[in-house]
Amino acid sequence: MSSQPKLRILCLHGYRQCDQSFRQKTGSTRKLVKALADFEFVNGIHSVAVDEHSETSRAWWFSNADQMSFSSREPTDVSVGFDESVNAVVKFIEDNGPFDGLLGFSQGASMVHLLIAKAQLGEIKLPGIRFAIFFSGFLSLSSKHDTLTSLRIKDFPSMHVFGDSDEIVARPKSEKLADQFDMEPIRIAHEGGHLVPSMSKHKERITQFLREQMAPIESA
């Protein structure tokens, strides 16, 4: 008897995180849906100078060229390292795919949105990827991304999870990102802050969302 096919989801960590730390932070969520999906993690290519442990701190791009740092709150005219990160993720997908969906947290969620927008504009290819899950997502405030952040994302299922107590990415910012998707996005609010929460209270909703995305692989 053949095993039931699973979704393959590629995960992008937040600023000052790395693939391994994000794997740990998503453990409870992954366990919740382990029958439906397998998760793989890609590491940001840019190191963040924080302290003596900075070799594990990564970024997808920097919004401050002088300090080589990032802020989700401050408008900027730069996005240092963004193009290199786009190429790295596209190459990772080419080498390790196919994947069915993308998942991102904070800056990683913003990166996921920008990748989807670039794909819809025909600037890159994301073969097979047809849905996304965002935790504490936000629209990039870099003017370099204006064309991407103003684009309406068409025919692309999405789930957006945000915290009512998030002091880094306030809920309205995540809601604004969700508003860019023309296919009615799933929105889940939790009481916590800037984190990937336990999704046990929302098991039915995330399970239903993933089951809806499984139709193409079940019919393959």
From TrEMBL:
Keywords: Hydrolase. GO terms for molecular function: hydrolase activity. Gene3D superfamilies: alpha/beta hydrolase (3.40.50.1820). InterPro entries: AB_hydrolase_fold (IPR029058), FSH-like_dom (IPR005645), LovG (IPR050593). The keyword Hydrolase applies. Pfam families: FSH1 (PF03959). It comes from the Eukaryota. Residues 5-205 form the Serine hydrolase domain. The keyword Phosphoprotein does not apply. Belongs to the LovG family. This is Serine hydrolase domain-containing protein. It comes from Caenorhabditis briggsae.
